[in-house]
Design goal:
The protein is mainly alpha-helical. Helix content is about 70%, strand content about 0%.
Length: about 300
């Protein structure tokens, strides 16, 4: 009997998850590289994101050419250099806000899920209160109440106060979903045999949470955090578009779209370039989160071909 040497069929779920993960990693890596090399790009071309590079005899914005591959904006500043420096703002806000949301959300969710009882009820009602308000509108209201972050007592010590207040607000709002996720996982895991065995041998609550429960929630947390970074970047761009996020002349992508919308029909590159950058980086993080989620989900990982 001839042995079967054919290759095993590859699950379509697995191939799609690997494609999403690979494409997401590539897109995110490109933007991270652009953000990291933005200062080097400015040194190489000889001007920064705030410098006017068009001659005084030319009325900006100017179309793309050899010296300025993406053209210039309405003030004669190079769009490519501003996009690269804008990536630093978007990624910093997205990552820092999600780190803050994770710290708050994991703490609240772990306490509620492990302690239960009145603590669980109180913390979940607090979470429901945060969910009662749409996060973008709540962030807009809070930021509108801080019209001048450069003069605030704490914010004025930050390198860029208008950017700092954005990630602080997004981090303080975005923890509710993380808290619910961690609580749900803890309620499920704490009844399993290994968690009960740890308590039976005398392990204290903090040790059970840190050594046994929390590591088993890392998979869903990684997926939620990856998707949250993309959401934070999108909200930051929206807030900057409305004028309450990163303040001019900072090269925020949302601000760049606002500055270029008046030229959308005649000179569309001014706002199309930052708009495409927002779309691409959010798509990259969403694909990355979807791919990681598919690979960590045993049901999708073992789906039949």
């Amino acid at each position: 009997m001839t042995p079967d040497t054919s290759r095993p069929a590859v699950s379509p779920f697995r191939s799609r998850s690997w494609f999403s993960l690979s494409l997401g990693i590539i897109i995110v890596a490109v933007f991270v590289l652009c953000a990291a090399l933005a200062p080097a790009l400015s040194r190489w071309v000889g001007y920064g994101p705030f410098d006017q590079v068009t001659p005084r005899s030319v009325i900006p914005p100017t179309p793309p050419d050899r010296d300025h591959p993406l053209g210039t904006d309405s003030l004669g500043r190079d769009l490519l250099v501003r996009l690269a420096h804008g990536a630093r703002i978007s990624l910093a806000v997205g990552v820092l806000a999600e780190i803050m949301a994770l710290l708050i959300g994991v703490g609240v969710g772990a306490l509620a899920g492990y302690a239960g009882g009145r603590a669980d009820a109180l913390l979940m009602r607090l979470t429901d209160l945060v969910f009662a308000f749409p996060a973008p509108l709540l962030a807009l209201a809070v930021l509108a109440a801080v019209p001048d972050p450069e003069s605030a007592a704490i914010l004025k010590h930050l390198p860029q106060p208008s950017v700092g207040v954005v990630f602080l607000v997004l981090g303080c709002i975005g923890w509710a979903g993380i808290a619910r996720l961690v609580r749900a996982e803890f309620l499920k895991i704490r009844e399993l045999e290994f968690a009960q065995a740890a308590r039976a041998i005398g392990a204290r609550g903090a040790r059970v949470v840190a050594r046994h429960l929390l590591p088993n929630t890392l998979g869903p947390l990684v997926v939620a955090a990856t998707l949250g970074v993309g959401g934070n970047i999108l909200v930051e761009a929206w807030l900057s578009f409305l004028g309450v996020g990163a303040r001019p002349p900072l090269p925020s992508w949302g601000t760049m779209v606002t500055e270029g919308q008046a030229y959308f029909l005649a000179r569309p590159w001014v706002c199309v370039a930052p708009g495409l950058a927002i779309f691409a980086v959010v798509l990259g993080f969403n694909l990355l989160g979807d791919g990681v989620g598919a690979l960590l989900d045993p049901r999708r990982r073992s789906a039949p071909a």
